[in-house]
């Protein structure tokens, strides 16, 4: 009987030892920023993505720019790149057949746009209704001025006759 | 894409020169303007101004309407001030193109508009009556399409000065604009035919 008890105690001790070994696995937590996302789309109605546009990424180190990566946007107008260690500011220039735009991304200062800012910006890139109405207003005014000037010219010609 | 924007590194001489030519043609055109031309000029300017917002997604690029050939057919020499005003408004309100580039952009679209008018004028002899509307329609369509093609050709010529390959660039931009060229040709042709039938005096020599 006594030997059985001793065996059970030893067995229990062994189990305890084993679990302590299992719980001693190391937990590894790593921090890493793996990519910066660049989105390019056309303004002025529709916000169509710029597909297959040339992208140039410049790393800005102490105010000095150097070309870091070049590539092309995908079907959704997106381009992804991995940031360099120690460089937090990048300038992205996107160009497709004459249309071009650029944007500076600074990881230290709030890393570009949040999602709601992004949605807002895309909405603004839609149909600029206010711009259209303003433009038509200017045109009406210009037409009035043109009428005035040409009418004065006509009056002068009439008086000279 | 027909608008050149501020950042494009064109030769400063080209930019300055284009401004001088633009102002010269503008002054000449405006000296020819009569009071009765003003309403038509304003309406077509409004159309050209807004048309640039209508985009078509074709292949990799997004292209928009130009309507310069149409302006040329409808306005003759006054198409030049029309395009100038439309470009100024587009630049400030939609940030298309750029302030310094308004001169060169006006030439790129305005001179083809004038050439389009010449084609329409020689083709029809400006003898436009309801009976000759088919002829008017045909030449208006040619002029409407050619306005865009010439504008693209001008653009491509300027882009080679900054290192683009001429043939490649031209082919790329013309291909991207094929639907625009077709739609503008049809639009201008149909409209000219319609006006020839109902109000032919709109095309009277100015």
Automatic annotation (TrEMBL), chain B:
Top-level taxon: Archaea
Protein name: Cobalamin biosynthesis protein CbiM
């Amino acid at each position: 009987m006594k030997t059985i008890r001793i065996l059970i105690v030893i067995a229990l001790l062994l189990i305890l030892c084993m679990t302590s070994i299992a719980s001693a696995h190391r937990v590894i937590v790593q921090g890493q920023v793996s990519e910066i996302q660049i989105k390019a789309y056309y303004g002025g109605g529709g916000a169509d993505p710029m597909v297959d546009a040339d992208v140039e990424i410049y790393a800005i180190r102490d105010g000095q720019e150097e070309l870091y990566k070049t590539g092309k946007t995908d079907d959704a107008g997106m381009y992804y790149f991995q940031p360099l260690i120690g460089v937090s500011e990048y300038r992205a220039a996107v160009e497709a057949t004459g249309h071009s735009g650029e944007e500076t991304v600074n990881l230290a200062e709030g890393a570009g746009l949040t999602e709601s800012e992004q949605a807002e910006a895309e909405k603004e890139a839609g149909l600029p209704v206010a711009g259209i109405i303003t433009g038509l207003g200017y045109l009406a005014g210009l037409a009035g001025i043109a009428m005035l000037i040409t009418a004065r010219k006509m009056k002068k010609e009439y008086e000279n006759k | 894409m027909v608008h050149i924007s501020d950042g494009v590194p064109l030769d400063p001489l080209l930019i300055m020169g284009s401004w001088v030519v633009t102002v010269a043609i503008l002054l000449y055109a405006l000296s020819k303007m009569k009071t009765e031309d003003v309403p038509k000029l304003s309406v077509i300017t409004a159309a050209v101004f807004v048309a640039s917002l209508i985009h078509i997604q074709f292949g990799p690029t997004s292209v928009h309407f130009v309507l310069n050939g149409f302006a040329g057919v409808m306005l003759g020499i006054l198409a030049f001030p029309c395009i100038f005003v439309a470009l100024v408004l587009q630049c400030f309100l939609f940030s298309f193109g750029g302030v310094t580039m308004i001169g060169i952009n006006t030439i790129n679209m305005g001179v083809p508009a004038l050439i389009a008018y010449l084609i329409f004028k020689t083709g029809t002899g400006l003898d436009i009556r309801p009976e000759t509307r088919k002829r008017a329609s045909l030449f208006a369509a040619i002029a409407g399409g050619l306005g865009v093609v010439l504008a693209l050709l001008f653009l491509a010529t300027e882009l080679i000065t900054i290192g683009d390959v001429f043939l490649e660039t031209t082919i790329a931009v013309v291909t991207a604009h094929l639907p625009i060229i077709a739609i503008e040709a049809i639009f201008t042709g149909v409209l000219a035919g319609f006006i020839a039938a109902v109000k032919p005096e709109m095309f009277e020599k100015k």
